[in-house]
Design brief:
By secondary structure, this protein is α+β, with helices and mostly antiparallel strands. It contains 10 helices and 9 strands.
Length: 252
């Protein structure tokens, strides 16, 4: 008999053999079960206990001897339905701890680099700040370009609302040719301090950083972001940013 469906339902090979043997033998001691199922005598009790836990086998005692009996085949459907419910519960629990698991994975990696492409890629690399930073912590941007496509401009506006609610702070240095209305807009969000670069330099690429993360981004039609996780590199870019920041004044 092909019992692959039983295995796919969650029964092991041994459990399937024992259950099918009991269906054919009826109430039985372990001897006939071993003979019929062809499982090792040393593990038959273990297999029977597993089937009892799953509600697929029961037993009665007659003069101190256990007689095992297979449950009605319809109980297999009950077992499968219970497994489905448990899987849903497990999925819900995993979803709850997924951010923490992702954070642990990220922190465990001492040094790595990844490339993200397009508008979605830049969003993806920035979204990680919400997994890695806590309320009161900060990230910075250095050399943000004056030109932003509409989709980027709208994304950053919405993101500043989210960032402010999360209690994460940011310092941003824009290229000097950036329209003042953009800095005024960004400074209107809580926890955001935007200023002009202290030197007149136009940089199409920007740099961002926090903790051990450094990001090199190009905000264009195609878009590109390179994420580097390395503490020494992050400290170096932070030092450059702080040196520039000390030369600036608050935007008015």
């Amino acid at each position: 008999m092909d019992y692959s469906a039983l295995k796919e339902a969650g029964l092991t090979d041994g459990e399937s053999r024992v259950y099918l043997a009991l269906l054919e033998t009826g109430p039985s001691t372990t001897g006939p079960i071993v003979e019929k199922s062809r499982v090792a005598k040393s593990i038959v009790y273990q297999l029977l206990e597993k089937l009892i836990e799953k509600g697929l086998v029961s037993f009665i005692k007659k003069e101190k001897t256990k007689y095992y009996q297979a449950a009605q085949p319809s109980k297999l459907l009950d077992y499968i339905e219970e497994r489905e419910k448990q899987l849903i519960r497990n999925k819900t629990e995993i979803q709850k701890i997924l951010p923490e698991l992702l954070l642990k994975q990220t922190l465990a990696k001492k040094s790595e680099a990844q490339i993200y492409e397009g508008f979605r890629g830049i969003q993806t690399v920035h979204e990680k700040t919400y997994l890695r930073l806590k309320r009161g912590e900060e990230y910075f941007y250095l050399g943000v370009s004056s030109f932003q496509e509409k989709q980027y401009h709208l994304y950053w506006q919405r993101d500043h609302v989210r960032r402010a609610k999360a209690g994460i702070n940011t310092k941003i240095l824009f290229n000097k040719n950036t329209d003042a209305s953009i800095l005024k807009n960004r400074n209107g969000f809580k926890g955001c301090d935007c200023r002009y670069m202290p030197i007149d330099i136009v940089t199409p690429a920007w740099f961002s950083g926090y903790k051990d993360v450094t990001i090199i981004g190009l905000q264009s039609e195609k878009g590109l972001a390179i994420e580097i996780i390395n503490q020494e590199i992050a400290d170096s870019f932070r030092a450059y940013f702080e040196a520039f920041w000390k030369q600036t004044k608050p935007f008015k």
